Amino acid sequence: MAQLFSISDLAKEFDLTTRAIRFYEDMGLLCPERTGSAGRTRVYSSRDRARLKLTLRAKRLGLSLVEAKDIIDIYDSPRDTTAQLEKFLQVLALHQQQLVAQMADLQANLDELKVHQREAKALLAKSLGSANGLPVKPRVRAKGKLAASSQPESS
Questions:
Q1: In this structure, what DSSP letter does residue 135 have?
Q2: DSSP for residue 28
Q3: Residue 5 pairs with which residues in a beta bridge?
Q4: CB-count burial class (<10 Å; 0-12, 13-18, 19+) for 23
């Protein structure tokens, strides 16, 4: 006999709220049977559990729920597996391009942040040096740019 799961079972196993599981159901990712009076009790099959696991894996990869559903639905259909795999590879390639672009943007932001940090440190050192009555002597950084130094000038 096939194993069945309650919404609480799946929520506990996958560390989700029951509301999240109902949302995935509303999105068409899960299709539990309804039992009990007026069909108020959801009963999930092993197939639903597998689809939930695949959905969460797709989310970790950064895919949208619509993309996840499209890919999962491909595997549910009895079509040619070549077409299924090609579609899956297209989605992954597109997502990879988006991640690479995001990484480049983040690296540019980090580089800019480092420049501002260096400039602020140099201004602070200059300010502290002037406040202490120490002469501020320029020093050369790696790329030939000047930076303030609050070290006393050697005679």
A1: P
A2: T
A3: 44
A4: middle
